[in-house]
Structure formats: structure tokens, C-alpha cells
Amino acid sequence: MQKVGSTTTTYYDVLGVGREATPEEVRNAYRRQASQLHPDRYAEASHAQRLEAANGMARVNAAWDVLGDLQRRRRYDGQLTTLLEWETAALGNVDGEGVYLPPVACEECDAVPTREATVWSVTSKWGIVPRISKQTGIYCHYCGTEIADEYQSHTLKKGWWGPLPMVATVIILIMNRVSRQKWDSLIPAPRGLDLLALPGSPHADTAEMLRRTEQKAETRQYVTG
Ligand SMILES: [Zn+2]
């Protein structure tokens, strides 16, 4: 795969096009890759080869989902620069004291990019007092929107009962929406610095994820042993 000048594999790398590629070039590249990885071509192949082709196809489809849509592509481009900077920081960029500077990873799943935001929930107590809980965290697209949705639906179910709780509920529903938007606007982020392992995405491939996890475990053993 062609690289954009970093060790992170981007969707552009997956399709083998540059970041300046026209929509038509992106489309052609997608068609070429998809036809090369088509299951028909692997009908006679070994299980491992078929698995690899299927994983390749999942990757190519994931890349096409983003790069084939102008709006998503623009959003992806906007955050790619930041992502590549984070990666540089993670891969041995050290400050004056020799301290390792990791990128800010998701508190739940280690993905980047992330953003910090707060969500609140309201529970009406005896219809009189609104009891408010809050959670502040640094989360990725998936984890952030999921947590925001949980807090929102809790508030919708338990917050309304009583005049004061109702006022709190209205305010907090709005505040949660703002926080959710912050996470929603992040590109659906891969685990760690790997742009291809997409936790929670429709393209996540269990076999591929397992393979990567094993690979990481092996690397760790190598490093410690
Ligand atoms: Zn996450």
C-alpha cells in the first residue's frame, strides 16, 4: 500500500490514491481494488487467503464509505492532519526532558481522535428535587456519542417529574446535545493509532481485530523478552 508519508495507514493508502485524488480517481481506485478482492477470485484459495481477501474488502469498503462521499471526505481530511500529528507525537516524539508524549486516547477504547466533554443526567426525586449526575471524559466518536445517548435517555425517562426537575431536564437536554455534537463531529476513530481497526463500525472485522490483538501481544512479548 502506498503511504501518505507516515506510518499510519489512511483510507487514501487503502485505495492507493493520493490525498489530492479527484472523486473520479477515488471511484476508479475503489472499483479496481474491489474487483481484485472479489470473493469469486478466491473461490479456490485457502481459508487463510479467503479471510485475508475478505478483510481487505472490508477495508476497501470502509475507505470508500468515507472517501466516496464528498462531505465525509472533507471531514476526514480536516481531522487527518491532526491525527498524523498525534501519531508523530506517539511514535517517539519526546519533549526536552525525554518524556514520551502519547496522543490523547479515548478513555474507553484507546482510539484517537478524541475530545473532552461533559454530559449530565437528571433524576427527579419525589417530584421535587432534581438530582443531577455528571460525567466528564475524553472519548472518541463511538464512545462519546454512546455515553451522551445513555445520559440523554436516562434524563428523558427519569428527569421530567415535577416542576423543578422539568426545568433542569430542559436545560440538561440542550447541554447534552452540545456535548454529543462534539463527539459526533470526530471521525469514527480507530483503536489506538490504527486507522483500520474500527471499533463499533459496521466494517469492524472480528477475525482481523483478533489477528491484530495477537500481533500486538507478540510484539509486546518480543519487547519484554
Ligand atoms: Zn472510544
Describe what this molecule looks like in 3D.
This protein is mainly alpha-helical. It has two domains: 124 residues, Helix Hairpins (Orthogonal Bundle); 70 residues, no CATH class. Helices cover 53% and strands 10% of the residues. The chain is built from seven helices and two strands. A two-stranded antiparallel ribbon has the order 1-2. A hairpin with a 3-residue loop joins strand 1 and strand 2. Helix 2 runs antiparallel to helix 3. The longest helix is centred in the last third of the chain and has 22 residues. The N terminus and C terminus are likely disordered. The site of zinc ion has 8 residues, from helix 5.
The CATH fourth-level homologous superfamily of the largest domain: DnaJ domain
The residue fraction in helices comes out at 40-55%
The shape is elongated
Query: What is the distance, rounded to the nearest whole angstrom, between the alpha carbons of the first and last residues?
Result: 31 Å
User: Can you tell me the CATH architecture of the largest domain?
Assistant: Orthogonal Bundle
Strand content bin: 5-15%
Order of helices and strands: HHHHEEHHH
Would you tell me which CATH topology of the largest domain applies? Helix Hairpins
Quick description:
The chain contains seven helices and two strands.
